[in-house]
Every structure is written in structure tokens, then in C-alpha cells.
Amino acid sequence: MKNRQIAELFERIADALELKGESVFRINAYRKAGRVLRDLTNDIEELHSEGKLKEIPGIGEGISRKIDEYLTTGKMTKYVEVTAGIGEELLDLLGVQGLGPKTLALAHEKLGVKNLDDLKKVIEDGSLAHLPGMGEKKTENIGKGIDLFEKAKGRIPLGKAVPIALRIVDAMKSRKGLKDISPAGSLRRMAETVGDIDILATGARRSEIMKGFTQLPFVTDILARGSTKGSVMIDDETQVDLRVVKTAAFGAALQYFTGSKAHNVKLRTMARERGLKLSEYGIFKGERRIAGVREEDVYRALGLPWIPPELREDRGEVEAAQSGGLPELVEKEDILGDLHVHSSYSDGNASIEDLAASAKKLGLKYIAICDHSKYAKYAGGIDEETLRRQTKEIDELNEKLKGFRILKGIEIDILRDGSLDFADEILEKLDIVVASIHSGFRQNVTHRMIRAMQNPHVDVICHPTGRLISRREGYEVDIQAVMKAAAETRTALEINAYFDRLDLNDLNAKKAKEMGVKMSIGTDSHSVETLWYVSLGVGVARRGWLEKKDLLNTLKADHLLRRRK
């Protein structure tokens, strides 16, 4: 699949245009094309060969011609034209938080900055701080952005790792001799990023299982292959490691390789206190293995109930298990709706009808269409008249739908004084209002959020810390004060399930629960292909110790509407 490669080309074009100070609308057109291709589950090469490029929602005539050119010739003239004279390493620097395109262009022109090393040097020697409009504070923030930028390199986002792992597991299940298979490592714990993708398997014919793994059709390179350990590249992009263990030790190995390290250290300490030895091969009393086939048996041998993988971070889960206080974690099946979805009315690429049909196929009972309000012009924000047309369409669709409901909503912008983008008489007619900050990240963010929550029509504050995992720490916000106000005003805080946000994160979700705050999962989907992100949101919720009662999405639609402020 070349989806990702072409997406990166469009994103690079957008970066180059931004660096040159081009129109924001041209820039966003290429960013949107990149997002569409990243989210696309179909193979772009197959669609091209079938002449279906123009049928992809969000891909117009101009973009489809560029895709055709690349798949036909291996080149994209527009990319070559736009990036001429701009080095790849310079474009990479646009991913550094705090380093906007204007500052980068100035640093490039005046200081000769071409790459990350150059940028570090001009920060260290003080020359960056002396550029017009800079100063010590801005330079310090860019330095922090570099730290975040470097930490993100080499990490695989959960939203990318999960589909790859499931694809392999599903393909392997049909292999002869396979008894059991499971993802392991931080992926199984649903950590927000993973260092690598680890899979564990067992079966009578271990060498045959390994052979089958290395011969999967989407394996593009075999990095290593032994009888029980192997490593491959998937689609020329991602390394995946498989370990095949004996069935008698599968449960113990799964527990061991799932981790975390701190959780495992605590379990080994407990084992020693009982005169036992715990390892990836099982739990032993002397030379006799007393548990190992199943994970549940490993925990039981230590006097514990099975602890869900998402909790295994040594954050009190062992003590809770000992006292019988483990939470009954929310399950994917408990989620009845998605409370943050964008349609083609704003910057999404799917119709409301298609979004509803796809959500229903995923087992949901409702979705909330929350397109951007008018202030968000960069995201195709809609005005009051467009919102009225949209709500009329939703009413008409709901009359036809059976067993599914579309909620009328808006993602309202919280403006710089804390006021909202639409008047109350507009908001009161909607089923749900989710409010977000999209600009002025360092300007009274806490006050603005609290003021928005005091509006009786605001139900949810979206992506409350504003972080982007790959490149931005987030707003300057007192999240504790926001949580306190959320509890007082009965406003929910969102767990934004978009893979590069996952915001609230697990630690903040746990704290919000302890403060009596309800939460809401929203995929922030802009296409039908990303509605599955609700599973990522559930992963965050489970890591945050959330139960069914802690989430609005577990309510039936009628109950949800009655629960509103």
C-alpha cells in the first residue's frame, strides 16, 4: 500500500507552502488530502487500477491527477516544484512546537538554519533570540519543542500500531498448528505510542508458525528468522517481532512480555515472598511449574485476580487487586455512541448519511455531528444558516433510520474572551454542544474554558489540554481548575480518540474520575474510516480506570439528552 507515502507527499507540499507563506486555503487542501489518504483503508493502488480515485470522498480532480501521476511515473511534479530549494530536514522542523513557519523562514534566511543541529546551535549561541519578534521566552519554548520532537521520533502511534497488529493476528489465525496468538508489550496495554510491535504465539509446530509469519503477503522484508523468534517489515514501514513459545508457558510469557516493567517487578517480588519464582516460562515452586498456560493462573498463584493489561503500570493496581478494589473497566461493547464527528458540511469528507451507516455497522446506536462553527474558517466552519440546513437534513435522515439516531450538534469555538461562536438561541436548539479552543493557546485558556462551561448549553469541553502527541505539549492550562469547574457545572470532559491527541490522557482521566467529572469519548472523525478510533478512546478510558458509569457514551440517546444541563 502506498497510501502513507502519497499522504506524506501532500503533507510535505503543505509544509513547503506554509514555509513560503502561501494561502491557508491552498495549504489546508493538501493537508486534507494527506489526512484522507492516511485514513483510507482501501489500497490506493487498487483504486487507481480500477479507475476509482475520484470516488474517494474528499479527493477532487486536481488531487486525483497528482495521485495518478505518482502511481504511474513514481514522481509528483507538484511536489518537486513546491519543494525546490527547500531541504527535507528544514521541512522537518515545522514539527517543532513553537517554531512557526514565519520564524523558521526567518531563521533559515538570516541565520542559515537548515536542520535540527543548526537550530540547536542558534538557540545555544543566543542568535535566534535576537531575531525580530523573538526573545528569550519564545526561544525557550522552541527548546522545549525540540525535546518533544526528539522524543516522538521512532515511536509508533497507537492508531497505526493497532491495525497492523490486528491485521497480522487475523492473518495468522488460519495457519495450521497455531493454538493461540496475541499482541503483547505496550500495545496490549494500549499505551499512546509504542516503541515496537510485539506479537506472541504458541502452537505445536513452532517453526511452521514462524515460517507462516515471514511469508505473509504484506511482509516486505525479513529482518531475522529463527525457529522461535522472527522480525519483519510490514509495507516497507513498520517492524514487527514475533516470538513463538511453548504452550505450557504461553500465559506466563504473555504476562511477562505485556509488562510494564514496574508491574512485573512487583509481581516477582510477591512471588519471592511466597517462595516462588516467576519468569516468562511460568511460576515455579522449586523445579515444578505450578502455573504458566494461562495468564489468569499466573495471577491466581500469587493470590490475585487477573489484572487487565491496561492497568499494569504499577499505579496501585496490585494493591487494588489485593483488596478486591479493581474497577469494572468499561468495555468497547458498552459504548453506544460517538459524540464528536465531522461531516462534509465543514472539513470532513463524508456525508452525514454515510457516517451514520458506517457507525451503525460498527455497532453504535448514535453519533453526534459536531462540525466546526463559523470562526474556524481554516476548517470550513459553518454559519448559522448552514447549521439550519444541516439540522433539517438530520431530522429527515432520522425519520428514515431504524435502530440508529443522529444527534444535532456543533463544535463551537471558545473565543479569546471566553465567549462562544454562536448565540445561545442557536445552541439551545441542538442536541449536544461540544466546545473547543483552536487558537490563542497561551491566552487565558483556563479562564476561557471555565467561562464556556458556565454556559448552560455547553455539554462537553473537547481535547481539554490541547496536546498533539507527536509535536505539541498543549495549552498553558490549569487542568485541575478545569476539572473542578467541570464537576461544579456538570460539564463533561472529552477523551478525544484521534490517535495524535488521546486527550484527556489516562492520568488526567483517572484524576477527573476521582473529582467526580463525567467524560465523553469522541473520535473527532473526519471520515468513515476513522470511526473505529472509538476503540482507542476506550483504551485511554480503561488505562484511566474508568467504568461504564463514568462515560456519557454508555447512555442510551434518550437518557443522554435528559442528562443535559
TrEMBL record:
Keyword line: DNA damage, DNA repair, DNA-directed DNA polymerase, Exonuclease, Hydrolase, Nuclease, Nucleotidyltransferase, Transferase
CDD domains per the UniProt record, alphabetical: NT_POLXc (cd00141), PHP_PolX (cd07436)
Iron recorded as keyword: no
Name of a matching Pfam family: DNA_pol_B_thumb
BP GO terms, sorted: DNA repair
Enzyme Commission (EC) number: 2.7.7.7
InterPro entries registered for this protein in UniProt: DNA-dir_DNA_pol_X, DNA_pol_lamdba_lyase_dom_sf, DNA_Pol_thumb_sf, DNA_pol_X_beta-like, HHH_MUS81, NT_sf, PHP_dom, PHP_phosphatase
Entry's Gene Ontology cellular component terms: cytosol
Residue span, Polymerase/histidinol phosphatase N-terminal domain: 337-416
Chemical reaction(s) catalysed: DNA(n) + a 2'-deoxyribonucleoside 5'-triphosphate = DNA(n+1) + diphosphate
Keyword DNA repair: yes
Superkingdom to which the source organism belongs: Bacteria
Name assigned to this protein: DNA-directed DNA polymerase
Taxonomic source organism: candidate division TA06 bacterium
